[in-house]
Each structure stands twice: as C-alpha cells, then as structure tokens.
Write a structure and sequence with these properties.
By secondary structure, the protein is an alpha+beta fold. Helix content is 32%, strand content 23%. Bound molecules: coenzyme A (COA).
C-alpha cells in the first residue's frame, strides 16, 4: 500500500534521488539547501508517496496566502500508471483548500507531453495567453 504523507527531514536525499531518477527537469533549487529551506519554511510543503519505506513519488505544495502552487511532481518510472501522482495532487489540493486556497497553479515543461497530459487529465487548463517570467537571484 502506498502512503501519501509529508516528507521527513531525514528523507531529503531520497527525495532528491526521486527527482533525478524520474527525469524531472532540474532546477537551481534541487539540492539539500533548497529542500531544507522549504521544510524550514513549511514542514508540510513536501508530500511524498511511500511504498514499503521507499520514497517513490513527490510533490511540493506551496501556499503563500494568495495562491496555491504545485512543483516537483514526480513518480519513479516503475511506479507510474498506478494513480500515485493523482493521489499526490488530490492530497495537495485537499491541504491547500483547508488552508484557504481558491486557485492553484502547476508548472509543466511544455515539451513534456506526459506532464501536460497528466495535468490536463487532473483538471488543470493551460493558460496560452500568459508567459511565465523568472529570475534566478545571485548567490
Ligand atoms: C507525470 C507523472 C508525475 C505521472 O505519474 P503517474 O503516477 O504515472 O500518474 P497517475 O498514474 O496518477 O496518472 C496517470 C493518469 O494521468 C493521465 N495522463 C497521464 N499522462 C497523460 C497524457 N500524456 N495524456 C493524457 N492523459 C495522461 C491519465 O489519465 C493517466 O492514467 P493511466 O496511467 O491509467 O493512463 C510521471 O509520469 C512523472 O514523474 N513524469 C516525469 C516528471 C514530470 O514530468 N513531472 C511533471 C512535471 S510538473
């Protein structure tokens, strides 16, 4: 049975390994420092799917008081197509709703048909008339 629950601080390396093995597009915050800062800010912001003590899926559930946001949705290849990502997203939605969120954004790499298809199937619409703008701050 796969359990969905907040990640523990001791699981940070396991979470980073899932991102590497799941082919999640790498970002500058994919390191111990990034995940430690996330858990320090909000210990419940990282959900994991656990199968017999192994972390097999993840999602970051962000809440800033205005909007909800999902990042780093990833499931290890051998565990795909069992509904694990769907359960991670539903649990994240439930937690965001409880905290007062009314609108949630998810970011998917446009060329990853699999990711975009997943989000559409989960009820998320692509906003073709918006552009995402980002800036990486100097260290
Ligand atoms: C995308 C990803 C998280 C899905 O994980 P998963 O646990 O296999 O997903 P689920 O089993 O919950 O849901 C899959 C369902 O989503 C829908 N779906 C998935 N891909 C789809 C696609 N390309 N087109 C349409 N629907 C799709 C289907 O309903 C599918 O059900 P099925 O498996 O019975 O066909 C996983 O493939 C992954 O980790 N990919 C690499 C990382 C990534 O792209 N992450 C998302 C970036 S934000």
């Amino acid at each position: 049975v796969v359990d969905i629950r907040p990640a523990l601080p001791v699981e940070i390396d396991a979470v980073l390994a899932v991102w590497a093995d799941a082919d999640a597009e790498p970002t500058v915050t994919d390191d111990r420092r990034g995940v430690e800062a996330l858990l320090h800010h909000d210990p419940e912001a990282l959900l994991v799917a656990e199968d017999e003590r192994r972390v097999v899926g993840t999602v970051v559930v962000g809440w800033d008081g205005w909007r909800g946001a999902f990042y780093r949705l990833a499931v290890l290849p051998p565990w795909r197509h069992q509904g694990i990502a769907t359960r991670l997203v539903r649990e994240g939605e439930r937690r965001l709703r409880d905290r007062g969120a009314r609108r949630i954004a998810a970011i998917a790499v446009t060329s990853h048909g699999q990711a975009v298809g997943f989000w559409r199937a989960a009820g998320y619409e692509a906003q073709e008339d918006r552009t995402r703008l980002v800036k990486v701050l100097d260290a």
